Amino acid sequence: MRYVLRLNISVMILGLLGTITSMLAQGQNHSFTEIDSLAIKKSVLDFEVAFNNHDAKALANLFSTNGEFTNVVGASAKGRKAIEEFHAPMFEGKPGFFSFKYSTLKNDVPKISVIKPDVASVDIFWTMDKCFLPDGSESKNRRGLITLLMFKEREKWGIAIMHNAELPPSVNK
Q1: pLDDT value at residue 153
Q2: 8-state DSSP, 168
Q3: 157 near 39, Cβ under 8 Å?
Protein backbone atom coordinates (compact mmCIF):
# COMPACT_ATOMS: atom_id res chain seq x y z
CA MET A 1 0.00 0.00 0.00
CA ARG A 2 2.80 2.43 0.92
CA TYR A 3 4.57 1.58 -2.34
CA VAL A 4 1.45 2.42 -4.41
CA LEU A 5 0.94 5.68 -2.49
CA ARG A 6 4.59 6.69 -3.00
CA LEU A 7 4.36 5.78 -6.67
CA ASN A 8 1.20 7.90 -7.12
CA ILE A 9 2.80 10.83 -5.31
CA SER A 10 5.95 10.49 -7.43
CA VAL A 11 3.89 10.43 -10.63
CA MET A 12 1.95 13.53 -9.51
CA ILE A 13 5.15 15.39 -8.62
CA LEU A 14 6.75 14.49 -11.95
CA GLY A 15 3.59 15.63 -13.73
CA LEU A 16 3.60 18.94 -11.86
CA LEU A 17 7.30 19.46 -12.54
CA GLY A 18 6.69 18.79 -16.23
CA THR A 19 3.82 21.28 -16.31
CA ILE A 20 5.83 23.94 -14.44
CA THR A 21 8.87 23.40 -16.68
CA SER A 22 6.67 23.73 -19.77
CA MET A 23 5.10 26.92 -18.44
CA LEU A 24 8.49 28.42 -17.60
CA ALA A 25 9.87 27.51 -21.02
CA GLN A 26 6.89 29.15 -22.72
CA GLY A 27 7.31 32.24 -20.58
CA GLN A 28 10.98 32.52 -21.51
CA ASN A 29 10.20 32.25 -25.20
CA HIS A 30 7.16 34.51 -25.13
CA SER A 31 7.69 37.15 -22.46
CA PHE A 32 7.64 40.91 -23.03
CA THR A 33 11.19 42.18 -22.55
CA GLU A 34 13.07 45.46 -22.48
CA ILE A 35 14.04 44.69 -26.09
CA ASP A 36 10.32 44.69 -26.99
CA SER A 37 9.83 47.99 -25.18
CA LEU A 38 12.77 49.54 -27.05
CA ALA A 39 11.46 48.19 -30.39
CA ILE A 40 8.06 49.79 -29.79
CA LYS A 41 9.69 53.09 -28.80
CA LYS A 42 11.78 52.92 -31.99
CA SER A 43 8.59 52.40 -34.03
CA VAL A 44 7.11 55.53 -32.42
CA LEU A 45 10.28 57.46 -33.28
CA ASP A 46 10.25 56.05 -36.83
CA PHE A 47 6.64 57.26 -37.18
CA GLU A 48 7.69 60.77 -36.15
CA VAL A 49 10.66 60.73 -38.55
CA ALA A 50 8.55 59.45 -41.47
CA PHE A 51 5.91 62.11 -40.77
CA ASN A 52 8.47 64.92 -40.51
CA ASN A 53 10.16 63.75 -43.71
CA HIS A 54 6.70 63.74 -45.31
CA ASP A 55 7.35 60.18 -46.44
CA ALA A 56 4.00 58.43 -46.88
CA LYS A 57 5.59 55.12 -47.89
CA ALA A 58 7.87 54.94 -44.84
CA LEU A 59 4.95 55.84 -42.59
CA ALA A 60 2.71 53.17 -44.16
CA ASN A 61 5.44 50.53 -43.82
CA LEU A 62 5.24 50.85 -40.02
CA PHE A 63 1.79 49.24 -40.21
CA SER A 64 1.04 45.55 -40.54
CA THR A 65 -0.05 44.42 -44.00
CA ASN A 66 -3.73 44.94 -43.14
CA GLY A 67 -3.15 47.72 -40.61
CA GLU A 68 -5.85 50.30 -40.00
CA PHE A 69 -5.41 54.06 -39.63
CA THR A 70 -8.04 56.53 -38.39
CA ASN A 71 -7.29 60.26 -38.24
CA VAL A 72 -8.60 63.04 -35.97
CA VAL A 73 -11.74 63.61 -38.06
CA GLY A 74 -12.62 59.90 -38.34
CA ALA A 75 -11.40 59.29 -41.89
CA SER A 76 -9.69 55.94 -42.21
CA ALA A 77 -7.60 53.72 -44.45
CA LYS A 78 -6.90 49.99 -44.28
CA GLY A 79 -3.75 48.32 -45.60
CA ARG A 80 -0.31 49.77 -46.28
CA LYS A 81 -1.09 50.89 -49.82
CA ALA A 82 -4.28 52.69 -48.75
CA ILE A 83 -2.49 54.30 -45.78
CA GLU A 84 0.27 55.53 -48.09
CA GLU A 85 -2.25 56.88 -50.63
CA PHE A 86 -4.22 58.53 -47.81
CA HIS A 87 -1.16 60.46 -46.54
CA ALA A 88 0.58 61.27 -49.84
CA PRO A 89 -1.61 64.27 -50.88
CA MET A 90 -1.35 65.78 -47.39
CA PHE A 91 2.43 65.41 -47.32
CA GLU A 92 2.59 66.94 -50.83
CA GLY A 93 0.40 69.89 -49.77
CA LYS A 94 -2.29 69.28 -52.40
CA PRO A 95 -5.07 71.91 -52.38
CA GLY A 96 -8.32 70.80 -50.77
CA PHE A 97 -6.58 68.49 -48.27
CA PHE A 98 -5.10 69.00 -44.85
CA SER A 99 -1.50 69.98 -45.58
CA PHE A 100 1.40 68.61 -43.56
CA LYS A 101 3.97 69.65 -46.16
CA TYR A 102 5.66 72.05 -43.71
CA SER A 103 4.43 70.45 -40.47
CA THR A 104 6.60 69.22 -37.65
CA LEU A 105 5.27 66.46 -35.40
CA LYS A 106 6.74 65.96 -31.93
CA ASN A 107 5.81 62.83 -29.99
CA ASP A 108 6.10 62.50 -26.22
CA VAL A 109 7.50 59.36 -24.64
CA PRO A 110 5.04 56.55 -25.37
CA LYS A 111 3.11 54.83 -22.59
CA ILE A 112 3.17 51.09 -23.31
CA SER A 113 0.56 48.77 -21.82
CA VAL A 114 1.30 45.10 -22.43
CA ILE A 115 -1.83 43.09 -23.21
CA LYS A 116 0.01 39.87 -24.05
CA PRO A 117 3.75 39.37 -24.62
CA ASP A 118 3.20 39.95 -28.35
CA VAL A 119 0.40 42.56 -28.13
CA ALA A 120 0.61 46.07 -26.69
CA SER A 121 -1.45 49.22 -26.52
CA VAL A 122 0.61 52.38 -26.92
CA ASP A 123 -0.51 55.93 -26.06
CA ILE A 124 1.45 58.87 -27.48
CA PHE A 125 0.71 62.52 -26.82
CA TRP A 126 1.83 64.73 -29.71
CA THR A 127 2.14 68.34 -30.77
CA MET A 128 2.29 69.76 -34.30
CA ASP A 129 2.91 73.10 -35.92
CA LYS A 130 2.48 74.45 -39.47
CA CYS A 131 -0.60 72.40 -40.34
CA PHE A 132 -2.84 73.94 -42.98
CA LEU A 133 -6.55 73.16 -43.23
CA PRO A 134 -8.27 72.35 -46.55
CA ASP A 135 -9.41 76.02 -46.77
CA GLY A 136 -5.77 77.17 -46.55
CA SER A 137 -5.93 78.57 -43.01
CA GLU A 138 -3.27 77.51 -40.52
CA SER A 139 -4.10 75.39 -37.50
CA LYS A 140 -1.58 76.46 -34.84
CA ASN A 141 -0.34 74.63 -31.77
CA ARG A 142 -2.16 71.40 -32.49
CA ARG A 143 -1.94 68.63 -29.94
CA GLY A 144 -3.46 65.21 -29.65
CA LEU A 145 -3.26 61.61 -28.60
CA ILE A 146 -2.41 58.63 -30.78
CA THR A 147 -3.44 55.19 -29.58
CA LEU A 148 -1.76 52.25 -31.26
CA LEU A 149 -2.53 48.57 -31.04
CA MET A 150 0.76 46.89 -31.89
CA PHE A 151 1.69 43.25 -32.27
CA LYS A 152 4.86 41.28 -32.70
CA GLU A 153 5.09 38.94 -35.65
CA ARG A 154 8.27 37.19 -36.76
CA GLU A 155 10.22 39.12 -34.10
CA LYS A 156 9.09 42.51 -35.50
CA TRP A 157 6.60 44.94 -33.95
CA GLY A 158 4.02 46.49 -36.28
CA ILE A 159 1.01 48.76 -35.98
CA ALA A 160 -2.25 46.86 -36.35
CA ILE A 161 -4.57 49.78 -35.52
CA MET A 162 -3.96 53.49 -35.05
CA HIS A 163 -6.52 55.99 -33.80
CA ASN A 164 -5.62 59.67 -33.61
CA ALA A 165 -7.54 62.20 -31.53
CA GLU A 166 -7.06 65.95 -31.47
CA LEU A 167 -7.08 67.57 -28.04
CA PRO A 168 -8.04 71.18 -27.25
CA PRO A 169 -5.17 73.69 -27.51
CA SER A 170 -3.10 73.95 -24.37
CA VAL A 171 -3.42 77.22 -22.49
CA ASN A 172 0.27 77.05 -21.54
CA LYS A 173 1.67 76.79 -25.07
Answers
A1: 93
A2: P
A3: yes
